[in-house]
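User: Round two. Same drill as before: sequence, then structure, for each protein.

Assistant: Same drill it is. First protein:
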Amino acid sequence: MEAFRQVAAGKKPLQRAYVAFMLWFVGRAIQAAARVDDEIAAEFEALPPGFAFSLVVLPSGPSLVIGKDADGCVRYLGKSPGSRKLDLEMKIKSIEAAMLMFTFRESTAAATARNRLIVDGDIPAACAVVRILDAVEVYLLVKPIARLAVKRYPSWPLSRILIGRPLIYLRAVLGI
């Protein structure tokens, strides 16, 4: 009888680094977009005070945490919530599924439909977060790529994108 050598799964460091960078930048862009765009601000305003959510890649992948202060200010909290209680956890099942989402080959809606995204928390809040993520992707990406990343590309006025996009990029890069 032949003995088999146990092979451990690879860590995929390049994919993890790419997804970690994307989560970091998207987190900062969400914080920036909440200050620049009125619709995104209204989505956050509808969420309860102190609301916090995370987007995590399973099993132990990179993550982002966004929280809303008691005064309604949206902040990117980094990789971990610290002592803060999360109201909503969105978990991507694997690094491969995260790569599909963050290389914009699959939209958030398609990832949910294909059972690659797990939501632990309030469903209406999760829908609001997905709408926020879609709006941020529209701001961050050029139209041909954004069409792949969102379920339905919005019919925003051109001025909204031309004014909002540079402001969101600037605020995301500077962290303000």
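Second protein:
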Amino acid sequence: MKLTFLGTGGVTAAPLPGCDCRACQRAQRNSAHARAACSALIEFGHERILLDAGLPLLASRFPPGTLTRILLTHYHMDHVQGLFALRWGVGAPIPVWGPPDPRGCDDLYKHPGLLDFRPALTPFVAHAFGELQVTPLPLQHSKLTHGYLFDWHGTRLAWLCDTCELPSDTADFLRGQPLDQLVIDCNDPPRAEPRNHNDVTRALAIAALLQPRQTWLTHLSHEMDNWLAENPLSEGVQPARDGQTLLCGAHWPVTV
């Protein structure tokens, strides 16, 4: 199984329009440092699962018939905006799972088009997506949000975004099992009172609690990129980058 980061940025990711900070100038000069909306693509066998749909040009990148499933963490616009064009394509319905948010986003439920919204998966229960086991995990955010634990033949990857710290039941669930890779919300540099997202202090505290073999920081703001330029991370913790791929199932994750 491989997971590719399609985007690793929050809503204030570099390059932020009109900003001349170092991170934004660097991203304007070199697109390799730019961050798109936080999302990923999971692939194995014939499966292509989109994890969140915030990329605005999603419909041109994934024409109908190229995605087997869509898995959403929540219904904030920066995680679903690509669905508004994708839904009007022509082709087979695409099954979509997300948390049990009765409001969803705008008129997605009323006019789903190709999107086949399925009943929400039960938290803390593993569900089979082909050979991949998917367990929803409640998170702490301003909108009902699920993270996910992916188990690929015993290799476990937790995707915990968007969140500010963890609910106690989710933390207790994850502490009870070995974790190979952790992808964690880290929107901000140290903050006295973070709101809807982890700052780096809280993201690293979660990593210390769960003890994964490798931690990837995602949903980064331009301010977080500026902080990273001055502050090295400890071994086993790295900021993810757009286009990076994790190959799961090997003894140690391989990145390309």
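The mean pLDDT is 95.

User: Perfect.
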